[in-house]
Design brief:
Length: 122
């Protein structure tokens, strides 16, 4: 699923707002652009890491930003990877294919809930 708005993406992942009735099956990972309307990618990442059910959801930042502070902040907030968008569309397709292969096929997904909450035990 592609969502172009940071707030709507958070609502989707948290099963809130218009997505409150969605199947709670999470994506295998989030491919996150830093430049999103309403809620920025960094704000979204911070919110995901503050949400116990989503804290371990893999997040791959894919951005045109070349700023060292964006790279540093993304990792401080818990990004699993930071990929700068290349300048050509062909390179972008290749890079996205590699990301999908690793994070969508090869990576083992973490459980949705922290171990301490499995089976209703808090």
């Amino acid at each position: 699923m592609v969502i172009h708005d940071g707030q709507r993406a958070l609502d989707y992942l948290k099963c809130e707002g218009e997505f409150q009735d969605r199947d709670e099956q999470d994506p295998l990972f989030v491919l996150l652009d830093l430049k999103l309307p309403r809620v920025s990618g960094l704000e979204m990442l911070e919110s995901l890491r503050a949400t116990p059910e989503l804290r371990k959801l893999p997040v791959v930042v894919l951005t045109s930003s070349r700023l060292a502070q964006d790279l540093e902040r993304a990792y401080e907030l818990g990004a699993n990877a930071f990929v700068q968008k290349p300048t050509s569309f062909e390179e972008l397709k290749h890079d996205v294919g590699n990301i999908l292969s690793v994070w969508g096929r090869l990576n083992k997904q973490p459980p949705r809930f922290p171990t301490a909450q499995v089976g209703g035990v808090a």
